[in-house]
Amino acid sequence: MRSFKLFWTAHKWTGFALSAILVCTATTGLLLLLKKQFDWIQPPTRQGAPGEVADFITIDDALAAAFASGNESFRSFDDIDRIDVRPAKRVYKIRSRHHAEIQVCAVSGQVLAVETRRSDLIEQIHDGSFVAGWFHDWVMPVFSGGMLFLVGSGLWLWIEPKVRRHRRRLGRSRR
């Protein structure tokens, strides 16, 4: 009975302590799963002009088009987080560190779309890096360990009474 009480108490308080992070992680995880279905989370990829990969403009030209767009999120190279190339759609997707995205036609160099990319912010909230680097590196692994403890202690809390009843039945049948 002692181990049951100990695990029950630890399970209860661990669950209570981790519940806010769990709700946040589950909610943002759901949004990330659905990001392709909602344009307000992640802008759809536009279609560039017809052409072959050999016709693509250089990345320098795509960046020049992004900087020339006049968007506040694209002022210098320090603002650029990454560049995705989508050959099938003939598009460069240039993402800023400020949750914006410019899509540039890989053939013509024309800016196709300038939109907010909320999926990056949602991902940062999901993995804890939105709070701080130390939160992502230290708290989230502890959170994961706590979740594994909840699974294990929950299984024990479910199994232990069954084991105890089984032992009692065995003890009665031996008399």
Write a compact overview of the structure shown.
With about 180 residues, the protein is of the alpha+beta class.
How would you characterize this protein structure?
With 175 residues, the protein is of the alpha+beta class. It folds into two domains: 1-41 and 118-168, no CATH class; 43-116, Nuclear Transport Factor 2, Chain: A, CATH 3.10.450. It is built from four helices and four strands, in the order ααββββαα. The protein has helices at residues 2-33, 59-68, 118-127, 133-173, and strands at residues 80-86, 91-96, 100-105, 111-116. It has a four-stranded antiparallel sheet with strand order 1-2-3-4, covered by helices on one side. The mean pLDDT is 87.
What is the strand tally? 4
Label the structural class: alpha+beta
Number of helices: 4
Sequence stretches where pLDDT stays below 50 over 5 or more residues: none
Note the gap between the termini: 23 Å
Strand order across the biggest sheet? Answer: 1-2-3-4
The Cα radius of gyration reads 26 Å
Biggest sheet character: 4 strands, antiparallel
Approximately how much helix is present in the residues? 40-55%
| Beta-strand proportion | 5-15%
Q: Averaging pLDDT over every residue, what do you get?
A: 87
**Outline, from the CA principal axes?**
elongated
Counting structural domains, the number is: 2
String of helices and strands: HHEEEEHH
